[in-house]
Amino acid sequence: MLAYKFDWGVLWRQPYGEWLLQGLWLTIQLGALAWVIALSLGILFGTLRSVRFWPLRILGALYVEIFRNIPFLVQLFFWFYAGPMLLVKTLQFKINQISGLNYYIAIFGLGLYTASRVAEHVRAGFASIGHGQFDAVLSTGMTRLQMYWYVMIPHALRLIIPPLTTEFLTIFKNSAVAMTIGVAETTFMSYKIDEQTFHGLEATTGAMAIYLALGMTVVKLMDLIETRFRIPGLMSR
Amino acid sequence: MDAVLKNLPYLLGGFLTNLQLAAFALGGGISLGALVGLGRISKRPWVYYPVTLYVNFLRNIPLILVIFWFFFVMPILVGKTMDPFVSAAVSFVVFEATYFGEIFRAGFQSISKDLVSAAYSTGLTYRQTAAYILVPIAVKRMLPSLITQSIITFQDTSLAYVIGLQEMVRRTTIVDSLEVRSVQLYTFVAILFFVICFVGSRISLHYEEKSRKAKVL
Amino acid sequence: MIEIKNVSKWFGEFQVLADVNEVVQRGQKVVICGPSGSGKSTLLRCINGLEPYQKGEIIVDGVSLSDPKTNLYKLREKLGMVFQRFELYPHMTVLRNITLAPMKVRKKSRQEAEKKAMELLDRVGIPDKAGAYPANLSGGQQQRVAIARALAMEPACMMFDEPTSALDPEMIQEVLEVMIGLAKEGMTMLVVTHEMGFAREVADEIIFMDAGRIIERGRGDEFFKNPKSQRTKDFLGQILK
Q1: What ipTM did this prediction achieve?
Q2: What is the mean predicted confidence (pLDDT) over C32-60?
Q3: Which of residues 67-86 of C touch B (CB under 8 A)?
Q4: Quick one: which of C66, C65, C67, C83 has its CA closest to C75?
Q5: Domains along chain B?
Q6: Which of A110, A204, B41, B139 has its CA at a distance of 20 to 30 angstroms from the CA of residue A19?
């Protein structure tokens, strides 16, 4: 059984240690950039699902259901393999010229996928605010658009910080799936170390520690944000 | 749709693998999850802390990484190379049990302390109370969440792709490399997953509605 | 059969029970009354080991709860308990509620357990509800099932924790009647309640508790007519209005 010789040095010996750090940097990039997309689209579609005009509600619902019920890996492969083929020939050619295309597709796919989950949280946030506030704001003469932009969305966002934290954590975890299209993030690197050294166990354990540290940092960050933007009087923590 | 139809049996065979893997993952994950849930509400520190550590640790780590980790670990423990299906199944059970565990925990916590006291007062042991009272009630109450999490688990089986398991996504990529009819193929696999997951989420909503109306349990 | 010696209990800093002493003989009916938070329910739960206590000793039928070797499960079989909110298992039929413990703890066969269960249901007056679920029963019916469930384990003593406090007035009587019937048959009973009419009729001894202490105890009429302590007088004054 234990004919295996552990080699934990693999984690910091060059170049492997550096690989892991590079991977971490990419993980952070993927997560952060995709999160920007996820928040923007998520707020948009979450709002769409809550408006009076039912065709928009259907659109929002369609978006959420489609992106929620297909595994992220399948979505990613679709964009990566099938995506370019959906474009007109000229665009297709241009796209295939981009180096590091998989990086951009990963961010795009991750953002789109996570947006569907954010949208649901946003919708729940609106639902818990209640009609009183709707009516109060509208009676001051604001248009619906202004109401959403200046009042409802900021309010809902503060309410849903806990579930958003979970989604933010999840986005970093899902970023690992990008390794399947060759993005050199943390998990990819740990696998690469195994290919070179056959010490995949140590490498993946090291990667686990990295994700753990990342997760704790994210939670701390979101805690700070929550405190900074806390609504006095409302039960938050 | 010709590439799809030509390779239908091959692709569907892969899909079957996803279903089988999900079946194992759910059977093991839910059973272990019930135990994890009990551990999370245990008053005995030597149970509570290790279980809490285990849950909080795994919830921070990507499933893909866990799948790799087990793939590397198991040959060391067992002494020979691992069948990807077995390795994946073990990874899933251990991983998904943390999520099911939290669902069970919520279910257990919704049961009034006095109900448990009533069971104990008739002489039932902890094990009997857990088996006949706590778990059945928790399952009934948390059924919508359990179904939703099961759907997620089913989707996650696609990740077994990374250790070479001959499940649907891998087979789709294999066919794609031969036929290069990517749009068809990936749309097909997307639709297949979509149908199952969408139906599942409707079932979950149905139970949620039912329990909301009845408020019986 | 139950001896409580100098029992004290704290929840953190807060003292819930203070130097409680009491002896309950076989066949005796003891009623405990007092304001909420006086520790009455906690005392009951200490007796069958549902709650631990820090000081003193409780001995049930010769077995001390402080002894680490004591098998709490076996001890609980001797003490039946009925709760304020009935606490029937919502996912099981009335019959199964009653037969679960006898089958799993006493290893009785299904027929044996069900036969006994039907007898008990008959005794509490609702044999027709055997196949129903608790949610379909009224509060009074649920409580009677709870009594039957406790009786199914053939306890030597029955403890009641405010059995009628959660019931609508019209249902209180049906439950009290069952309890009076039990008393007449000679069951040892420990009842926490505000129902003074019941206490008058059935109790051998009435205990008044406040802030974790036993303030006064007395027999029947003497207790009601000549309470010795001021606090007892105040409490009775409120209850008996």
Answers
A1: 0.89
A2: 89
A3: 73-74, 76-77, 79-81, 83-85
A4: C65
A5: 2-214 (1.10.3720.10)
A6: A110
